[in-house]
Amino acid sequence: MAKNKSKAGTISNPETLKLWVRAGGRCEFRGCNKYLLKDEKLTGCEINLADRAHIVAQSKSGARGDDSLSGKERDLAPNLMLLCSEHHNKIIDKGALQKEFPKELLLKMKSEHEERVHYLTSLGPDCETAVISLIGGIRGGVPAISEDEIRRAVLDFELYPKFFGSGNCMHIDLAGLADQDTSAFWKSGQEKIKEEFQRQVIPGFKKNEFKSLSVFALARIPFLIYFGYLLDDKIKTILFQRHRDGKDCWRWREGVKKIDFESSIIQTGSDKNKVALVLSISGKIEFKNLPPEIDKQFTVFEITPAGVMAGTDILRCFDSIEEFCKVYRSVLRKIEKEFNCKDLHLIPAIPAPIAIECGRQLLKGVSPRLLVYDRQSGTYKLIIKI
User: Fold this and answer.
1) Which H/E stretch holds residue 265?
2) What is the CATH number of domain 261-385?
3) What is the C-alpha to C-alpha distance for residues 216 and 132, in angstroms, rounded to an integer?
4) Phi, psi angle pair for 65, to nearest 5°
5) Rounded mean pLDDT of the chain?
6) How far is CA 146 from CA 93, 151, 173, 276, in A?
7) 125-240: what CATH class?
């Protein structure tokens, strides 16, 4: 592959323009994507860092030069890649590595990159989504989430993150909370969520800035339910699940059948003022393990997956969330209509997105107050009231 300076003026300005536009000003080497009009790492200076690199070299003796492509065609945009100098000179054109990068592979890299640029730039303002992440406060450490993971996940919904690159991505960090499972831990976490929500999210609601919300959250279940209660249920909201298998762990899995859910009454109590709801989704909650305050006076509802076993990896399809919400809303309406309870005791074993929906689906001023339990040392304890 010849350097673009080997024959001054060989590559015309129209062909150069086509190359820059189609590449979006970024290196087309697979996995690089470096922006080529600014030194972003060190000086911050705006400068041209790009090489116009030939896939089939201009001369027969150059890299991949022994090809049937005509001399004129070699200087046209379809045979050119926009590359950073490192991937041009030190990788693709390196004599010992040339066999690793045949014409077919480089054409595939170019095609993939330019198709992605074309697709992303075709997304209009209506495809903006505001990203909110809530991370931390779980047993076993704090999971990391990168901007690239978020970009790939929202792109599956033909959306792009509105605030990336501006420093305004909304993030609630609970990693610094200390003294887990104490009343102070739960109180400080709830206060932190409310404070950051009011500071970062509420202004956007008031200004109608959000066309949609994309939520990436992984924290203790009571925190997630409270967080969901604060979210606006009138704005399109897409919840993402952190999967345990392989890379792209925040993307919903393709080709996975959605899960249906069903509700049942597992105990009919003697007091219409006392109702509990058990959510056996990421694990089965045995009746004998319910908190002692859920006695024979309580009517106890349960929501479970229909036709499949409860499990930690059960939620792999985005459509499953709405199926849960349908059943959850139905149970709430039944309780509101047929019972006199002011408090609904919620005992959950649920994935993070469903926890958020448990709070988000409450009708403020209509639904009973949620008393949310958490499993600690083998028993369920009342944690927060929403």
Assistant:
1) strand 261-267
2) 3.40.50
3) 6
4) -70, -20
5) 89
6) 32, 9, 14, 38
7) alpha beta
pLDDT in tens, 95-116: 788 889 999 999 999 999 998 8
Do 217 and 352 touch, CB atoms closer than 8 A?
Answer: yes
Backbone φ and ψ for 363, nearest 5 degrees, come out as -90, 110
* 219 DSSP assignment: S
Every domain of the chain and the residues it spans = 13-121, 125-240, 261-385
CB 213 within 8 Å of CB 231: yes
3-state secondary structure of 317: coil
Q: Across 193-236, where does the E strand assignment appear?
A: 213-218
Examine domains 125-240 and 261-385 and report if their fold is the same. yes
Q: How far apart are CA 80 and CA 106, in angstroms?
A: 10
What backbone torsions phi and psi does residue 121 show, to the nearest 5 degrees? -75, -10
List, for residues 170-219, the tens digit of each pLDDT value: 889 888 787 778 889 999 999 999 999 999 899 888 888 888 899 999 99
Give the global pTM: 0.75
Which pLDDT value is given to residue 169? 72
Burial class from Cβ neighbours inside 10 Å (0-12, 13-18, 19+) for residue 195 reads: exposed
| Count of alpha carbons within 13 angstroms of residue 149, beta-carbon side | 18
